[in-house]
Amino acid sequence: MMDLGDSLGTKINRGDYKILVVDDVVSNVLLLKILLTNEGFQIITANNGEECIETAKTEKPDLILLDVMMPGISGFDTAVILKKEAETQEIPIIFLTALNNPSELVHGFQVGANDFLTKPFNKEELVMRVMHQVQLVAAKRIIVRQNEELKRTISNRDKMYSVIAHDLRSPMASIRMVLNLVVSAISPDVIGPEMFELLDKANKESEETHDLLDNLLKWTKSQTGRINVVYQDFDINEVIPGVVEIFSMIAFTKKITLEYKPNCDKLVVRADNDMLKTVVRNFLSNAVKFSPENSTIEIITGIEGEFAKISIRDHGVGIAPERLGELFHKGETTYGTSGEEGSGLGLQLCADFARKNGGDVAVESVLGEGSTFSVLVPLKKEE
Fold it and tell me: Do 41 and 61 contact (CB within 8 A), yes or no?
């Protein structure tokens, strides 16, 4: 990609830039045309405000030199019209004027002037002011081009992520299921402790890989606008137990107890069911990952104002205070109590999904004592 600083340092090809000269005095138009043509610019002309507006729309000049005192539509009124039209509002304007009082200059800038050139002017000042505006136009062209290149790069990257995640997720899910069944059904006494340890390690890595692919696919869809919020009315207390049950087998391998603690009999929310389950799954996955053996993880539901609140509380390693503020914004590699690796993408996805549903996420933690991750989603409003 071209560097902006390097690009501006190169010589501008003046023949690539078109300047519209507008003045009701024909001799002034001819003088400016000769001077600027000799400097290498493309020059087109108009003799009044109406002609200027039409020419600007059809020719799309890079710069307009516009006389202020013209019969019919003045230069100031012409500028107002140009700045209102989408196809001409970005064209820079240098006003040509014999007036030199502050109020006129202020008014000129208010209606859209980029610069002024006072009559009579000399060639050096004319060329300097024109070149300044042309350089700004050149800079804008480079920025626009680089933005387009960046958008294409990001789009191609997101497509690649999506393809990779989609094509690998299904076979990884099958591998994960088989390894889960094997690890839960067999004991170290049957195959030996070393082989069991290898199976257990493979099982954990398959879980992490599947979760990463799942998060990557959802994150890519979310960032590219290919995932929509499907609002549904549902009782959290009927949904969360199913998510907890999925993680009971994973928690069992680390001798971790999952305790579901609903504080309300019925907790109906209006949100996207799948997105909410994704947030809770990620919070639970992290809690298991960062909790020691023989510990407890609590899943607590309740009400906070106009929101339902789901909190996942662990008694694990905790998080340093300086890292709390960036957890939901900055993806970074982390390691659990058994060496489980995390990308940090899941927490960014949680924050994104919660906010898409009109809610938010929060975290409280004490280093060495544990963490509580919470998601808030709007309660269903009474009709």
Answer: no
Which positions ≥6 away from 4 have C-beta within 8 Å?
139, 142, 143, 146
Q: Which helix (H) or strand (E) holds 71?
A: none
Q: Would residue 139 count as lying in a domain? A: no
Answer whether residue 341 shows pLDDT above 70.
no
Q: What is the pLDDT of residues 124-168, one digit of tens each?
A: 999 999 999 999 999 998 898 888 888 877 766 666 666 565 566
Range among 32-36, 98-102, 327-331 rated most confident: 32-36
Per-residue pLDDT of 41-52, as tens digits, reads 999 999 999 999
Q: Which residues pair with 303 in a beta bridge?
A: 308
| Band of pLDDT at residue 340, cut at 50, 70 and 90 | very low
Same domain, 284 and 349: yes
Report the predicted TM-score, pTM, of the whole model to 2 decimal places.
Answer: 0.50
Distances in Å between the Cα of 79 and the Cα atoms of 63, 92, 99 are 12, 10, 17
Q: Which neighbouring-strand residues pair with 376? A: 309, 360
**In this structure, what is the dihedral angle of CA atoms 201, 280, 312, 369, given to the nearest 10 degrees?**
40
In this structure, what CATH number is given to the domain that contains residue 270?
A: 3.30.565.10
CB 212 within 8 A of CB 340: no
Q: Which residues are paired to 366 by β-bridges? A: 370
Does any domain span residue 354?
Answer: yes
Please indicate, yes or no, whether residues 334 and 246 belong to a single structural domain of this protein: yes
Give the C-alpha separation, 241 to 284, whole Å.
Answer: 12
The parent domain of residue 345 ranges over 229-383
Tell me, yes or no, whether 241 lies in a domain. yes
Sequence-distant (≥ 6) Cβ neighbours of residue 244 within 8 angstroms: 258, 260, 284, 299
CA distance 21 to 17: 13
Residue written as tokens 């549904």?
A: 232
In the 8-state DSSP scheme, what is residue 187? -
Domain boundary pick from 177, 201, 227: 227
Q: Examine the domain organization and report whether 178 and 306 are in the same domain.
A: no
**What average pLDDT does the structure give for the chain?**
83
Res. 202 pLDDT band, cuts 50 70 90: confident
Q: What is the spatial distance between Cα 282 and Cα 364, in angstroms, rounded to a whole number?
A: 16
Assigned domain for 35 exists: yes
Highest mean pLDDT among 99-108, 192-201, 223-232, 261-270: 261-270
